[in-house]
Structure formats: C-alpha cells, structure tokens
Amino acid sequence: MPKASNLQKGHIINIDNHPYQVKQIDVHTPSARGANTLYKVRYASLISGQKLDQTYKGNDNLEEMTVDKRRVSFLYRDQNLYTFMDSENYEQYTLSEEALEGQIQWLVDGLEGITALLRDGHPLCIELPQTIDLEIVDTAPAIKGATATNRNKPAELSNGVSVLVPEYMTAGEIIRVNTETGQYMSRVKS
C-alpha cells in the first residue's frame, strides 16, 4: 500500500474496485506551521477513461491494484482500435483510442519495448518506452555555425509529430524523443 507521498505517475490505484491510473500529481506545501503537504492527484479510469481528481495528505494510504505486466509490440491500427502482440506467447490484445489517450502519436509499426497492463487477462492500458528513435522528415536548412548557440527550430518527424530540435539538425537524421514530454533528447549515432 503506497502512501500518497510515494505515489508516482503511472501507478494503478484501486478506487471503489475500479482501476485508476495516476496521470498527474501536484504537490502543495502550505506555508503555515504544522500544515500538512497536500498531494492533488489526477486519475484516469482504465475502464471508462473518465478523469478523477483526489487530494491526499502525505501519510494517507492508497490501495495499489495488482496487474500483470506483459511485453508487447504494436502490430496495427483498425479504425479506432489498436492491436498489440504479446512478445512471449504471441497473444493479441486490442485497446480503444480512448484507452491510449496521449500515446497514439508514438505508436509506429513494429514498436517494441511496450508494456501492456492486464487484469484477469484483459488489457487495461499500455506503458510506452521512455524514449523512441524517429527520423526527421522536414525541417529548415541547417544554419552554419549554429552549434555555438543554443537555439531551436521546429522539425517534423516520421510519425507526423513536430518537435523543437537544435538549429544544426537536418532532414534524414535520427533523433531520440521522450515519449512522456514529447521533447527532443539527443541525436542517435548511425
């Protein structure tokens, strides 16, 4: 049973026998003496996708829901359904667009390193790898001498997402992007 002060993004919590995933945590530390630190947590229901906001004191106990974690890879999309395949037993799991909120733009064919969270053999959601390598397909030309400055320019990636990259980057380069923040991390050596 984790305490509210130990809660992390992605944890699955049991609220009224329904699985909710932690999406955001805001910490409020009051300035008054003896006041408790408050943790405002935004959850998303893994069944309906509905949002839920709760506020806790740091020592409040929460009930973590036990889920099975399976390594899967992304196979294909069929309208608003996304199919994944278990890397060990080749079983296929399908999730709706609503269950994958905020993750769809990172799903490229054959993406591996994905973890599916299952309860009683049914998929609830997925966890993407922390980073993904993608190719820059369109960006402004590189500026000579741009390595000396710390300025960025927009670049469109092979999955259609636009991110800010350093000015010296060119189309055709492979970069590493953080799937949680959607920000450029580094260039991938080829």
UniProtKB/TrEMBL annotation:
GO molecular function terms attached to this record: translation elongation factor activity
One Gene Ontology cellular component annotation held by this UniProt entry: cytosol
Location of the Elongation factor P C-terminal domain: 132-187
CDD domains: S1_EF-P_repeat_1
Pfam families assigned to the protein according to its UniProt record, in alphabetical order: EFP, EFP_N, Elong-fact-P_C
Keyword line: Elongation factor, Protein biosynthesis
Annotated Translation elongation factor P/YeiP central domain residues: 69-124
The keyword Protein biosynthesis appears for this protein: yes
Family membership noted in the UniProt record: Belongs to the elongation factor P family.
HAMAP family referenced in this protein's UniProt entry, alphabetically: EFP
Protein name: Elongation factor P-like protein
Organism phylogeny: Bacteria, Pseudomonadati, Thermodesulfobacteriota, Desulfobacteria, Desulfobacterales
